[in-house]
Amino acid sequence: MKQLIAILILVAGIPAGPARSGSAISVVDFGIYKLSIDHRTKAPQTVAGGRNVVSNIRIFRRTRTVFAQLGRNFGYRFRIADPTLLGRQLTLRTAFPPLHDPKTGRRGTSQSRPFMPLSNGVYFVGYRFDFMWELAEGLWRFQLLDGETLLHEEVLRVVVPLN
Question: Which architecture does CATH list for 25-159?
Answer without folding.
Answer: Sandwich (2.60)
